[in-house]
Amino acid sequence: MGRTRARDTEHPEARLDHGGIARIVPSEFTSGFELIVDGTPQSHVDLDDPTHLHFEYIVRMGAVIDQLPPGPLTAVHLGAGALTIPRYIEATRPGSRQQVIELEAPLAQLVREHLPLPKGAAIRIRIGDAREGVGRLPGALQSSCDLVVSDVYSGAQTPAHLTSVEFYRELSGLLAPGGVLLVNVADGPGLAFARRQAATIAEVLPEVGVLADTQVLKGRRFGNLVIAASAAPLPTEWLPRMLAAGPHPAKIAQGAEVHSFIQGARVVTDADAVASPRPDASLFLR
Q1: Which UniProt keywords apply (predicted)?
Q2: How far apart are CA 229 and CA 215, in angstroms?
Q3: Which residues, in sequence order, are bridge partners of residue 277?
């Protein structure tokens, strides 16, 4: 049985506008800090080494980002968390220009104050709903982003309005030719939600890969899947070997595997979109 995290009264916290508590605590299992929102681990940050990616799905996102052409990136991130991926990009690709959209101003302030960004980093945080915020981004970002990351959670669920084909069309409009969309999807046995998300994204961007722990990808347990998509072939030449190396065996499904994965799954529209499944609370016991 896992160890439940004791009630914390010693570490910085913020009450969020939409309910709940965000708290920054030292990581129990590695160096750095974790952002916890209502008992759900949201982010891990190592201020001494921003290239240290702890959560497995974030490691997979980093592996895809590393395959992008060398040099600074133009990136948009939906969902700030503790800014793990923006920090990683700043560390590995200095000079990158990054925009972050975060719903909760108290969370952004908590992170800025207690997990400060590197000096000189070109990372701008905009407060507001992710979908509305995309519509308010500077026009110059249209068709110019090398990377768009959608990793938005309200508690432990992705809001319904950020799962539809209409939403993904808005995101695809930000991408430069060859730009990549990364979406974090959480799902459980059967993967009904993840299959619909992959089918929905494939409706907009034809080149799709699904990265996950092999047991999650087989639908045997709850976990995170990263969907990578582009209008151009994905830069994934070295990913299979990197993913298989661990720390836990993982793979990327592409081509015929993706077609099989999404077969029979209906595209999500604004009219029928639902939030992602809520994980069992025991998943986060420590």
Answers
A1: Polyamine biosynthesis
A2: 22
A3: none
Task: Give me the phi and psi of 203, to 5 degrees please.
Answer: -65, -25
Residue 207 domain-assigned? yes
pLDDT in tens, 138-158: 999 999 999 999 999 887 789
Instruction: Read off the pLDDT of residues 178-198 as tens digits, 9 standing for 90 and up.
Output: 999 999 999 999 999 999 999
**Structural domain that includes position 62:** 54-269
- How many domains is the chain partitioned into structurally? 1
Q: Does some domain include residue 208?
A: yes
> Across the chain, where does the E strand assignment appear?
13-15, 21-26, 33-37, 40-45, 74-78, 97-102, 123-127, 145-150, 175-187, 207-213, 223-230, 250-253
Q: Which token pair is 116?
A: 């400060």
Residue 29 lies in a domain: no
Residue-wise pLDDT tens digits, 23-78: 999 998 889 999 999 888 899 999 999 999 999 999 999 999 999 999 999 999 99
Which whole-number Å values give the CA distances from 47 to 28, 108, 125, 269, in the listed order? 16, 16, 18, 40
How far apart (Å, rounded) are the C-alpha atoms in residues 162 and 151?
Answer: 10
Q: Can you tell me the distance from the alpha carbon of 182 to that of 174, in angstroms, rounded to the nearest whole number?
A: 13
49 within some domain: no
- The Cα 217–Cα 189 span in angstroms is 9
Q: Which has the closest alpha carbon to 43: 62, 24, 29?
A: 24
With a pLDDT cut of 70, the percent of the chain lying above it is 93
Give per-residue pLDDT as tens, 94-134: 999 999 999 999 999 999 999 999 999 999 999 999 999 99
Cis bond upstream, residue 247 (ω within 30) = yes
